[in-house]
Design a protein that fits this description.
rod-shaped; 12% strand; 4-stranded parallel β-sheet; Ribosomal Protein L13p, Chain: A; 8 helices; alpha/beta; 210 residues; two-stranded antiparallel ribbon
């Protein structure tokens, strides 16, 4: 009768039946090969190329555009002040001088246009402001304060009404003085800037009523 083999005997028979791995000759052969041969023998990974144009990734944060002086270009604008209220007229002129009418407006750069105003003597003052509004200046001497009504200024120097109104609507600082130098105001229709070919600006309905 056949006797049963124990577990240890079965394991020993299985190990004896398996062929031994020849590790030493392979390791020696690999050591004998030079580095260049190893690199040539190694399979190269094919780079995956995508078909079609490369798609650029959108920036994480949108860039803010800041204009510099001279990039937007200065233009010449012509404004007819006949029959337009003084305050509404001067606010639009101030925006053009600062460059707020352009999409590339930059508050710390001079991006505005040159503005020529004609017919300043025909500007409109609503209500009874022509008699009530008073302009003051001082001679820098004791008791040297002087005053004039808007009617008196309009009869003697009509361009000063527009100049004062525009200057007081600009922010205070060195930029305001720079913008104000680009304003030219004339009492009549004639002006010496025809060579610059100023573009006539049609202002919106500013309430041409008294």
């Amino acid at each position: 009768m056949a006797t049963k083999k124990t577990d240890t005997e079965e394991k020993e028979t299985k190990k004896a039946a398996k062929p031994k791995k020849e590790t030493a000759p392979k390791a020696e052969a690999k050591a004998d090969q030079p580095k260049e041969a190893k690199k040539a023998a190694a399979p190269k990974k094919e780079a995956s190329k995508k078909e079609g144009p490369a798609v650029k990734r959108a920036p994480l944060m949108p860039k803010t555009y800041f204009a510099t002086e001279g990039t937007l270009g200065e233009q010449w604008k012509l404004v007819d002040a006949a029959g337009i209220p003084l305050g509404r007229l001067s606010s639009h002129i101030a925006n053009m001088l600062m460059g707020k009418t352009k999409p590339g407006y930059t508050r710390f750069a001079d991006t505005g246009d040159n503005v020529v105003v004609v017919n300043a003597e025909k500007v409109r003052l609503t209500g009874d402001k022509i008699n009530q509004k008073t302009y003051y200046h001082h001679t820098q001497f004791p008791g040297g304060i002087k005053s004039k009504t808007a009617k008196e200024v309009l009869s003697s120097h009509p361009e000063r009404l527009v100049q004062l109104a525009v200057y007081r609507m600009l922010p205070r600082g060195h930029m305001a003085r720079k913008w104000f130098k680009k304003l030219r105001v004339y009492a009549g229709t004639d002006h010496p800037h025809k060579a610059q070919q100023p573009e006539t600006v049609k202002l919106p309905n500013l309430g041409h009523h008294n």
